Amino acid sequence: MKQLKIKSGNLKTIIKNYKNWVPNLLTGMRIILTPIIIILGIMKQIPLVIVFASITAITDFLDGNLARKWNTVSEIGAKLDAVADKVFAIGLSICLTSLFSLLWIIVVLETILAFINLYFHYKSGKTESLFIGKIKTTCLFITILCILCSHFLPNIKGIVQGFMYVCMNLQILCILEYIFNFYDNMHPLSVEDNAMHQSIMEDAMEEKTIEIEHLDELITKYESEESNM
Predict the structure, then answer these.
(1) Which of 23, 111, 160, 187 is the most exposed place for a label (fewest CB within 10 A)?
(2) Cα–chain-centroid distance for residue 156?
(3) Can you state the percent helix, strand and coil of the chain, rounding each to 5?
(4) Angle at 55 between CA 50 and CA 100, to 5 degrees
(5) 82 pLDDT above the threshold of 60
(6) Which helix (H) or strand (E) segment is 70 a member of?
(7) Would you call 77 helix, strand, or coil by DSSP?
């Protein structure tokens, strides 16, 4: 009976603290559903892909909003959310490569971005988030949405290809931006390395040299006046 009461008490505590684990559970669901979406995409079950992708997108919308609303945003949750987003984007892109082979380039570039982010976090302990990265992610999901629509509307394939090229360019810009940011973080400039600082110091040294020269002239003049007296 005591064990039953203890288990019942633990269950009540877990339910009471639902605000802490529900957002992370939704994020975890996004990772779990991604392999199912890939399998459905390989089987060319596009209607089911749309259904599961929509469910996954809803979890993506809810987890962050609930965490902010309930004030339960955590570092672990943020990292898990970033991983889930990458897994979902790459997985969804892979399952649609049968419709557009050009999508493989997007998959490769997105994978490179994921590894760069992972390496940056491993080296610096920071989670880098760029504005251009958010634009790229938005463009990627719009591209994927257009690809799904093209299955039913073949006439928009030209628009889809246009979005894919825009997305690839944004991915390349993101890769370059992350590399530059990583280098700047790993090799921060000291005050002595700053060009403006060096210029100021040179000007100050020049002024001091002029002052010393003037002082030498005054001393010489003073000594000559004393000797004349």
Answers:
(1) 187
(2) 30
(3) 85, 0, 15
(4) 30
(5) yes
(6) none
(7) helix
